[in-house]
């Protein structure tokens, strides 16, 4: 079993130089609000899926500088003694709100908000971003692949190409939340409960005098979970016939009809159609065909369009690294500070690039659902103390073209962010991984198909309340 | 400080089902040889850089199934009681040879070889591949970026976009070995000694009433390491003038002339040239200009070609994920087995795709250097017991076009793989990370510039000895 770890120093060094600076200049206790949000959906998709919150909460709970950390920092020679002393009892004392894992999220909306003294809020930036960026990336990619498979199970097979041990384990976790049926990563099962499975590699076949013996032996050992890898020598001339023989000789006499073959190379459409015919002709109509080999959502879609007879997919490197777009660009931006009297002073980060201007203030996010269809039609970002009245008509407008306005009635508004920490205390316990997976699938069902297209998806509306929009405009006018 | 972890179950589940199968069928003790090699250099480059060996060795040393692991496996219901009992005392008892970290490696040649009982050799596959693939990927990418920077220091800034905690920490480690000057990742410094540094984020500037106060305060706190981030508001109208004022008011009176500004957005060529003129006009000729913002080897090359006045680079997501090609395709293939009498029986994996046919047998790899230039001109893969005689002319031939032959004299032959484990005992201790970095740079200096081109590099020769080539041909003819 993997032990827990002290990730306290998994931070950019500047979090510490800034922390020491805040400490020495009296800014350390200044209450700040930071938002985590992203700007672009990977692969040009219509939405992303939030994941990684449980690891963020674990990190916050365990945050402490041990003797070795303090000694290391002292050796750097740039931190004052009082700051190092302060770090010995450093704990997170603030508040965190976040969307539950598995929630579909859209560009520009905060999916995690921190309220904490400057020094604490700043310090946790790196770990929060890397964890949310990584798992949200893999969850988002996985869900594309799972949707392409159209209900056929997809297993995560990518450990050997993952970017380090955590990428394998946590990637398997995120992929299960986002819809994978299981993983090859045993440790992800032991730690997180993402069900692990797997049968044989080519080396198993090579270890025996011939393919038939290798298959027969495997069926004898594992009669109830025999998936035979049929491409070590020649799929149609050797692999499938030997598999059929092994199934017939070992499984059928025991009354076992559920079994499978796996194709890991070659033209998967052609081979799966031929193999299906051979299996059916042998009476093995319940034998499944599993396919693997550099698959992703596009290849799976094409295979199925071409009539491949594949029952389930194993997906490796292109899922576990999100190969086509391996970066999820979540950012952590200051949205407000509090003055001494507890008043919230909104802050904005302007940019030459209009898309990079941040939404100021302490906010919340509502997801709006049509009552007749149940489908989500927009997200609305409001000030923290605004309430959306479902009984009143709601006017939404495009924040970039404010003359585009539309009024909605008969809708339900649901707040997306839930409290995770209150005054340093963890108040949110993650559901089981299976519950998260079920929740994720249910939330995605509430999106229109148009938002789920792979190419040119419908642009889901993320609007600002009038009050928030007004404050943003005032800040923009007020800046140099 | 991060604790050590038990990664024993970080394996594909099929390693366990096969292990149980080998155990039950008497194959567990069969001595096997497995090679790790790769087929394609990422980004179309001329060579890759091996990294990750120290973590592989740590993993092998710590390999053991604890009570929790055994209990988890028992719960899966597919492993026999004797196998679970056997796992309680499972240790690696075999031999491992590998190239030292930082060594340039080429497609097709083993850069790690395992000789061990089948059950052990099979079991370690997943962790070995994921570790070597990840760190070799980042080392290879980093070295491209470092070479593009032409001697200007490159710092690794990517933790927040890394694929999980290990990807940040171990990625920083690999990037330092391959030539980065440092990292922003504090934990990579604490654990591995990759020097961490960093100064301020935009939030520092936002926390103060104005940019000038933020800069002045920072210079007062850190007069000897002040790198001021000048793009929060407007680089040329506000950032650079405020930085100059802070440097002049705080640093110059103390006689400190070494300082820096950082550009993190906008047209880096234009801004750096303008900023350079302003700094020089203010007498701050020793002030360095640091640039960051989605850089990679291509952008850095273009910036320098266009006359950007940048002294050092911070590189984030495109390095830490190797964004343009985030997968290093190292594989683990059976090369031979031993019979009961200790004879080595070569094994080959054939494929429709000629490039995927493996090189059989227990092998070693020589790197051949010209004595007059000192440069490497080819690698030669031989049988394990062949000796290359430097005093004799050496005939090399293209393994795909054997009529292409050339005879070499006046060369030096150096074996690339060194013993890492012998009969289960670790016999190789990694040099310090700084020694690895120095070694890596020296080895790359021994390659011809033609091999180091970004586009269409010269194809470095990796040839087979006549004996090895003959055995491979015999096996190919002998297969179905």
Automatic annotation (TrEMBL), chains A, B:
<comment type="function">
    <text>Catalyzes the first step in the biosynthesis of NAD from nicotinic acid, the ATP-dependent synthesis of beta-nicotinate D-ribonucleotide from nicotinate and 5-phospho-D-ribose 1-phosphate.</text>
</comment>
<comment type="similarity">
    <text>Belongs to the NAPRTase family.</text>
</comment>
<dbReference type="InterPro" id="IPR036068">
    <property type="entry name" value="Nicotinate_pribotase-like_C"/>
</dbReference>
<protein>
    <recommendedName>
        <fullName>Nicotinate phosphoribosyltransferase</fullName>
        <ecNumber>6.3.4.21</ecNumber>
    </recommendedName>
</protein>
<keyword id="KW-0436">Ligase</keyword>
<feature type="domain" description="Nicotinate phosphoribosyltransferase N-terminal">
    <location>
        <begin position="9"/>
        <end position="133"/>
    </location>
</feature>
<dbReference type="InterPro" id="IPR041619">
    <property type="entry name" value="NAPRTase_C"/>
</dbReference>
<dbReference type="GO" id="GO:0047280">
    <property type="term" value="F:nicotinamide phosphoribosyltransferase activity"/>
</dbReference>
<keyword id="KW-0328">Glycosyltransferase</keyword>
<dbReference type="InterPro" id="IPR007229">
    <property type="entry name" value="Nic_PRibTrfase-Fam"/>
</dbReference>
<dbReference type="GO" id="GO:0004516">
    <property type="term" value="F:nicotinate phosphoribosyltransferase activity"/>
</dbReference>
<dbReference type="InterPro" id="IPR040727">
    <property type="entry name" value="NAPRTase_N"/>
</dbReference>
<dbReference type="InterPro" id="IPR006405">
    <property type="entry name" value="Nic_PRibTrfase_pncB"/>
</dbReference>
<dbReference type="GO" id="GO:0034355">
    <property type="term" value="P:NAD+ biosynthetic process via the salvage pathway"/>
</dbReference>
<dbReference type="Pfam" id="PF17956">
    <property type="entry name" value="NAPRTase_C"/>
</dbReference>
<comment type="pathway">
    <text>Cofactor biosynthesis; NAD(+) biosynthesis; nicotinate D-ribonucleotide from nicotinate: step 1/1.</text>
</comment>
<dbReference type="InterPro" id="IPR013785">
    <property type="entry name" value="Aldolase_TIM"/>
</dbReference>
<feature type="domain" description="Nicotinate phosphoribosyltransferase C-terminal">
    <location>
        <begin position="363"/>
        <end position="472"/>
    </location>
</feature>
<keyword id="KW-0662">Pyridine nucleotide biosynthesis</keyword>
<dbReference type="Pfam" id="PF17767">
    <property type="entry name" value="NAPRTase_N"/>
</dbReference>
<dbReference type="GO" id="GO:0005829">
    <property type="term" value="C:cytosol"/>
</dbReference>
<keyword id="KW-0808">Transferase</keyword>
<keyword id="KW-0597">Phosphoprotein</keyword>
